[in-house]
Amino acid sequence: METWVEISVVVAALAIVFQAAMLTAMFVQMRKTVERVDHLTSDLHTRVGPILTRVQILLDDTQPKISEMVSDATHIVYLARGQAQKLDRVVSEASDRLRGQLVTADRILTGALETVEEAGSQFKRGVWKPVQRVSAVLTGLKVGLDFLRSRRGGRRSSGEADVEEGEELFI
After folding, report:
1. Per-residue model confidence as pLDDT tens digits over 90-116
2. What's the CA gap between 129 and 135, in Å, rounded?
3. What is the spatial distance between Cα 63 and Cα 56, in angstroms, rounded to a whole number?
4. To the nearest whole percent, how much of the chain has pLDDT over 90?
5. HEC profile of the chain
6. How many Å apart are CA 61 and CA 67, to the nearest integer?
7. CB count, 10 Å around CB of 161?
């Protein structure tokens, strides 16, 4: 049984040595990896450092310009709003004036048309009716004279007198 103990001790010693060798190999490999990462980090830092510096300088230079552009844009919007309000007032005022002028023109035209209509009615009553009456009286006198003529000169036939009378009325 002693041999088994010795064999176990030897196997355990070999396992411990193998573990130590593996840990040493892992340590060496980890150290190489850390050195590579350090080298890559320093290389990246040397390359990115100037870029970041340039970006910072660019931002420092452009920030006042951007602020000025935003301020100018704000001022332009303020001015445009003011001009739009002025234009709205002008257009509203002009439309109100136009509306008032249209109402005034409508009243004037309505008054003129009423006056023309009234003048036409007065002309009809004052001039046209008397002219029609005088025309009717003259027609009556003419018919009466024609009747008297036809009685005196009984030679004409009544058909010819009617035709002649119709022609005279037509003229």
Report:
1. 999 999 999 999 999 999 999 999 998
2. 10
3. 10
4. 49
5. CHHHHHHHHHHHHHHHHHHHHHHHHHHHHHHHHHHHHHHHHHHHHHHHHHHHHHHHHHHHHHHHHHHHHHHHHHHHHHHHHHHHHHHHHHHHHHHHHHHHHHHHHHHHHHHHHHHHHHHHHHHHHHHHHHHHHHHHHHHHHHHHHHHHHHHHCCCCCHHHHHHHHHHHHHC
6. 11
7. 15
Locate 137 and state its tokens: 């009286």
Contacts of 139 (CB under 8 A, 6+ apart): 169
72-87 per-position pLDDT tens digit:
999 999 999 999 999 9
Q: What is the pTM of this model?
A: 0.38
Please say whether the beta carbons of 146 and 165 come within 8 A: yes
Tokens of 2: 């002693």
